[in-house]
Design brief:
Helix content: 10-25%
Shape: globular
Largest sheet: 4 strands, antiparallel
Distance between the termini: 13 Å
Oligomer: single chain
Strand order of the largest sheet: 4-5-6-7
Number of domains: 1
Number of strands: 7
Radius of gyration: 14 Å
Strand content: over 45%
Number of helices: 2
Order of helices and strands: HHEEEEEEE
Structural class: alpha+beta
Amino acid sequence: MNRKFQSLFCGFLIAVPWALANTSPVAWKIERATLTSHSQMARSFAASVSRIGQAKTFELSASVPMTKVEDYFVSGNKLAVIGEAGGASAVVVFDLTRRQKTDWFYC
């Protein structure tokens, strides 16, 4: 992705996550979202994820370039995690159907 698109996308994620959450039906439940430290900048994000109406839960985890998780939200089948990464902001995107991290960037 080019830098201009990343900046626009990051601004969109930070400015209006409530709009996405309120316009699409909620299909996923995220619980126990945590950030575990491995080094000064390397952290692991982990969360328990389940589909609404189903009892089956799975653990989603990945290494992320964040020092603090500020917020997260679900849009469709994607989980966006917004947080701090030193002096910058970072966004990490997970595909919940594939159960893996698909993208991340600083903004």
